[in-house]
Amino acid sequence: MIRALDFLSLFFLVFPIIFAERSFHPRDSAERQSKTEVQVRPIVTPRSAQRYLWKYGWIEPVLWESRPSHGKPTPTVENVIQSDRTNQEHLENTPFDSEFPTDIGLTLNPRFSGALHRFQEANKLVVTGKLDAATMKAMNVPRCGVPDRKVPEGEETQPEDHEENGSTIPSNLNESEEDSRDTHQESTEDVQERGQTLSLPAKRLVRRKRSQLLKAGAKTTAFSKHTLKWRLLGEGYSVWLSKEQQRYILRLAFRMWSEVVPLNFEEDLFSPAHLIDIKLGFGTRRHLGCSQLFDDMGREFAHAWQLGDIHFNDDEHFVPPNSEHGISLLKVAVHEIGHVLGLSHMNLLGSVMQPNYIPVNEKMELDLNDRMAIQKIYGKCSGRFNTVFDWVHQEPDDLGRQVSHYNTYFFRRSWYWRYENSSNRTWYGYPQELKVGWEGIPHADIDAFLHFWTKKKRFTFFFKGKLYWRYDDLNDKTYRQDPEGHIYPRLISDGFPGISGPIDTVFYDQRDHNIYFFHGRNVTAFGMESQKVVPGYPKAIEDLFPAAKSGDHPKGNLDSVYFSFSHKAIFFIKGSYVWNVATSDDLPYNSLLPHRLINEQWKDICDVHPSMLSMPRR
Ligand SMILES: [Zn+2]
Ligand SMILES: [Zn+2]
């Protein structure tokens, strides 16, 4: 008896050629070392290093989330506690641009040293607790303005409305006098939102919405709805890229998160500002009515608030993906959106949530750590599929030999995903629209796919309703008329006498060369050679494919029966569950093993908002 494990070897007999799953290409492949476009004061003194450590939470966690993204600018180092004053004053007395003193390790108080220690450890530097050259180098890399260590949500005790409260904590590390004057001017200005003035009550509404969210406990660290509206502010375009480029890149950045969690992002250009969940804008220094400045110390490319807004520092030279120089807006936007969704910095190689900008990174994609972190907050994607299959197609290799490839596809309504079995995730940039990727088949709700192959013949068919289409694998489109002269679409009952549509799914069993059509609770075997229904059929699915564990069976109305080349196994798929056909001789033939969740077998097959579906294939 031939079992499923033998499928692959049989397949090799039929296609004795190189046969492999095709691997993906990176979405954003050619980023290179950036050039400095703006003059910034490098961090070369203990004073500036201490400012850095304070600002980003290395001395103690920063009250970041309660700082308003709109409103009066607040000191950048507001959580300095009294015990630090002495040291601070000492540092203040050090000329900012003075030469780096060689005995610096001796002049620092223990808190500074401890902060340096933590910073060095997190950045995988030699831990000296001293301001050495490697540490200063790490501090001078372009970075995100969100502190590395924040006071956790719910533990913040800041007043809810900074604007009305109006209190600022005096700090010797505050901005220059000129900046202080700007502060007062700024606080009287109304915030412009896409050409319309947002009145004070509306501003309060925005803030109240956020503070209410933040007050509601643990769940406030995440959006509670699945579709989020975003807008690039009209007064906040970048000077480096066209408006369309900026919006396109932001759309792509949102889409990358959509591809791994059940969240949709919709660009909304028209709703009132308070209905927009995520507002994005570009600005320099004092910008967009923000409480935080982009100063000229270090190179801060952006900052963002959990469940809030994103500001990009337009003093950085933002560039599209694949640019040789500059800062990739895509990379920065993906990072900042991560903050808005609730992620903090992660000092992990390959993570998009690293605080520093790393120019050379061929795979600008969410890595496993990013995916796990965001799924911890928002859960995994799930959903029903119309059909699942491996598509085998041939392409000439470098030597002109015909090489067979297969890829796994999941169809849902009008979308499809290409799946990478070797890395257990979808290809980047999926889903795509059926009408874009599969020429000639109906644009939605395909019932079934069939790949039939023998040594002599090979067919690929799609089924919907009472009709079916033959697919020309070589030319990647349906036949209007196939080499045998049949016109498509064709009635199922014409091509498969005795079978009438619609069908739920169909499956070619290489073991007995029969095609099995599933409909309702029944299955019908069809012989391709005889062109007839096999005598004795239809039969109950449950009789032909018995449950290995009593009661654990999909019964009928299957979504798909799918033979996977990667897993060398047959899967029955229905709703959110999957059952494997057993290959063990210890169980009755064709037994269905107990069900599992589809999203445990195939990971991160996520919907994206329809407005993002038309983005080109990569
Ligand atoms: Zn960040
Ligand atoms: Zn800002």
UniProtKB/TrEMBL annotation:
Q: Which GO terms describe its molecular function?
A: metalloendopeptidase activity; zinc ion binding
Q: Where is the composition biased (Acidic residues)?
A: 154-163
- Repeat Hemopexin: residue ranges? 382-441, 443-499, 500-548
According to the record, cofactor stoichiometry and binding are noted as: Binds 2 Zn(2+) ions per subunit. Can bind about 5 Ca(2+) ions per subunit.
Bias-annotated ranges (Basic and acidic residues): 181-193
* Positions with a binding annotation for Ca(2+) 1: D314, E316
At which positions is Ca(2+) 5 bound?
V561
Statement: the UniProt record of this protein carries the keyword RNA-binding: no
Region annotation (Disordered) maps to 143-201
**Active site as annotated:** E336
GO cellular-component term (any)? extracellular matrix
Which residues does the annotation say bind Zn(2+) 2? H335, H339, H345, M353
Keywords for the protein's UniProt record, in alphabetical order: Calcium, Disulfide bond, Glycoprotein, Hydrolase, Metal-binding, Metalloprotease, Protease, Repeat, Signal, Zinc
Coiled-coil features, chain-numbered ranges: none
Name the domain of life.
Answer: Eukaryota
Tell me the leader sequence span.
Answer: 1-20
GO terms for biological process? collagen catabolic process; determination of left/right symmetry; extracellular matrix organization; proteolysis
Residue positions binding Ca(2+) 4: D447, D559
Q: Where does Ca(2+) 3 bind?
A: D295, E316
Q: Which cofactor does it need?
A: Zn(2+); Ca(2+)
Residues at which Zn(2+) 1 binds: H287, H303, H311
Q: Where does Ca(2+) 2 bind?
A: D277, D309
Q: Which family does it belong to?
A: Belongs to the peptidase M10A family.
Under which name does UniProt file this protein?
A: Matrix metalloproteinase-21
Source organism of the structure: Xenopus laevis
**Taxonomic path:** Eukaryota, Metazoa, Chordata, Craniata, Vertebrata
